[in-house]
Amino acid sequence: LLVSGFFEGVDFDRLLEDRGRAPYGDAAVIYAPRPGGGSEGSEAIGIWDDSLVVVGPSEEAVRAAIDRIEGRAPLEPGALDVFDAYGEVYGRLGPTLLARIAAGFDPTLEARINEIVEAMELHVDAQRDIGMRLSVRGRRPEEMEQLARALGGALAAARLAAQESGDEDLARLLDYAEIDPAGAYFDLRLAVPFEFIEEKLGDCRWVRRRSATPVEEGHDAPADAAPADPEEGAGDR
Fold first, then answer.
1. What's the rounded Cα separation, in Å, for the pair 14 and 18?
2. Residue pLDDT, tens place only, 141-152
3. Is the domain of 36 the same as that of 145?
4. How many angstroms separate the first and last alpha carbons of the chain?
5. Do residues 132 and 190 lie in contact, with contact meaning Cβ atoms separated by under 8 Å?
């Protein structure tokens, strides 16, 4: 799985502190699960030149990918055709991720997904709105159609439960998701408008500015410091 972007300000050492850290190649750092367990997840994660995140099933797989990126190894046919390598996030996945997510809505779906699904192809476009397409493929069209209907029902039930519990954010997010069945495969699509993202994350800059400009007792806050109440100064956003 590859994720492209600008990661210069991301503290990966803190985010991945449960993994071992090792520089690799010309411009990469690899975070791999520690021997004996203790790491959350079994995947290895490579950060290349603060612009590319490589996620693989093992440290060896991530090293091999970085070798190809830096020209030490020849390019090999990838899991995706070159025409399918688009978006800020793209890659081919096994069924485990979808099975874990679906289990949160309906525990009976986890085993069905692991049994029926062969592969999944993920694409995420995050230029402004967030658009995600997860293409899910299986062996038997009839069972895939049944699985698509079951997932659609689970999404609808989860949306209703979120509304009844007063979790409007989750209800709105689930409202942006849909299942598009097509025989032996189906697409799980999620289209989140930029306005929703801005609304939910808009206050983050206030928190960051407050933490970056501590005020000592007995001293006035800097003129450009964020107001204590995020609602103050809302007109400046």
1. 9
2. 999 999 999 999
3. no
4. 35
5. yes
Q: What proportion of the chain, given as a percentage, has pLDDT over 70?
A: 78
Q: Determine contact, residues 208/230, Cβ cutoff 8 Å.
A: no
- Counting Cα atoms < 13 Å in the Cβ hemisphere of 96 gives 7
Whether 160 and 96 share a structural domain: yes
The tokens describing 179, both together, are 């299942």
Number of C-beta neighbours around residue 156 at 10 A: 15
- pLDDT exceeds 80 at position 11: yes
Which tokens hold the place of 220?
């006035």
Please report the sign of the dihedral spanned by the C-alpha atoms of residue 98, residue 99, residue 105, residue 109: positive
pLDDT digits (tens, 9 = 90+) for 158-198: 999 999 999 999 999 999 999 999 888 999 999 999 998 88
What SS3 state is found at 19?
strand
Domain finish residue from 21, 46, 76: 76
Does 33 fall in a domain?
yes
pTM value surpassing 0.70? no
* 14, 47, 76 - which closes a domain: 76
DSSP H helices, the chain, are 12-15, 59-69, 96-105, 109-116, 141-165, 168-175, 194-201, 204-212
What is the pLDDT, as a whole number, of residue 92? 82
Would you say residue 217 lies in a domain?
Answer: no
Same domain, 103 and 19: no
